[in-house]
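A reminder before we start the practical. When you read a complex entry, don't treat the lines as separate problems. The point of joint prediction is that each chain is placed relative to the others, so the output describes one connected object in space. Small molecules and nucleic acid strands, if listed, are placed in the same frame. In the example below there are two entries. Take a minute to note the order of the lines before looking further.
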Amino acid sequence: MFDILIKTLKTGTVTTKYPKKPDIAPQGFRGMPELIPDKCTFCGECAKSCPPGVICLIENGQEKSLTLSICGCIFCGMCEEVCPVGAIRLTQEYELASKTKDELLTIIRRTA
Amino acid sequence: MSEEYIEAIRKKFGNLILDETVSNNETYLTIKKDDAVHICDYLYHTLRSALLSMFATDERARDGCFKIHYVFSCKGDAFIIIQIKIEENLPKFTTLTHKIPSANWYEREIQDMFGLVPVGHPDPRRLIHFEDWPAGLYPLRKDFDIRTKPERVKGEYIYRRVEGEGVYEIPVGPVHAGVIEPGHFRFSVAGEPILNLEIRLFYTHKGVEKLFETMSIDKAVFLAERVSGDNSAAHAVAFCQAVEKLAGIDIPPRAKYIRTILLELERIYNHLGDIAGIATDVAYPFGAAHANRSKELMMQLNEKLTGSRLLRGMNAIGGVRRDIGDKKEMISKELDSLQKDFRELMELLVSSPSVADRIETTGRISTEIAKGLHVVGPVGRASGIDSDIRRDHPYAAYPKLEFKVPVSKEGDVNARTNVRADEVYESITLIRQALSRLHEGEIRKDSGKIPDGCALGYTESPRGETFYWVHISNGRIERCKVRDPSFCNWLAIEYAVLDNIVPDFPIINKSLSLSYSGNDM
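Here is the predicted structure of the whole assembly.
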């Protein structure tokens, strides 16, 4: 009985006040992917490498658009790995709950 | 090697062998369909080879027939794979279940997925398909389109009945309290003691094996990772090793050590979670809280090392994707504190009479039952089966590391808890050894073009041996058979609960640590 008390006192409180006190993911965390529109060349390598196929490159006449839906993202980081210009990277963001799928969709466009 | 086994088979059945091919440590023997039972029986009972997996392939396009493969393990890191051909117009084969009880579910699986009938099977009911699945539709046949949405039909599943004065049935599930996976348990009881339990699973079928056939090899690694959520590393490594073996890729030593560290980190957090679960189920929340706290710390370590709490996204064909060598100090510091913490916790757990009272002699699985069903992993080892893929068929960096394989004979919940606790200590030692020997060098080799061929990949996951048999043709996955340890262990629960009381079922279930999703792909 004493042993249990000692162990309990020694351990103290280990829970944190999350979400009041933010819990920041460590460096290198595989969180929400982010597109950097200025760097993107619309080459489509990320779309080809995406295992669940949530990145799509759509060409419509003069306009090219790249869509990224986080709904089906598995945070594998393949897009980041294959991108030749570093236009997509995984961030430390993990609070991704949303009421609509549209909020989880990123679209970038470029007209030639 | 397998030479002496092959020699023995040749001597006894020489004229029955139609074809023999060897690739790596696998010997494929093609034999006549009618002789399969004799040869498998001889391998199992006389040569004492365990049946590791059994599966069918649809090779009608190439050879005009289906094939069934029986995978046996040999001493000295070798495998014998017996193959038989089955004509499309006579889709039948003789059951092996009477001779090798562990063939039971494999044969029923083949019946559901390929429409090949095991003649004389003691329980020919459907296993994976439900009664509303139309007859004559076999998803793993090549002519079955993955987008098929079949009509639902009417049908009935007949459960075994236990009748007698005062015998009641308690149906539980498939939806359970708490966030766990679905499974139906039907108890027949007389008062509190359980007379019979029949389990019905396969509510989580996702068509994973079919899905593999539609994916490129690189992307399939991520699918393998998601077959059984908390055994991600073990599944991914098993798949990668199968592909690397058939392509003859020798991954860099540093990658081998990193994989070993990942696999052992996975074992630690799984075992801590299981011990926490057992403590919860015996109403010892103090122990559960501390085990869960340790588990959380390990998962946070995983996150710091790999960016994923479940160690995902680390493996690739040819090695690993991220180096963890620069975090050696962090790992060894965490392990030091875990070891101290865990030792204190286990001392408190085993010295508590209220825990001992609930777990000693509870849910016993005899060695005989465990051998018959081919129970694997810590559950098998707690029932006296001294087997561990890491030692018997070494892979990654295991041949260079020293470790003990804890075995116990009792086969009760207590033994399973202790085996897991001992394995945690062994894993800590293994990671320390791996860290001290981590070579400098590259972590990934370019895989190049993967040639045609087939090979077995295997790992000892926290639940037991995990097998992948991968067949590559024209750079595509022709067939990927996954055998998760839970597929072997689930039936053991029907025996473990006999003569126990209903309130002990949750502890017994937890102590077996069975995966629903890994079992039913």
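Discuss with your neighbour: The longest strand of chain A covers residues 63-69. What might explain this?
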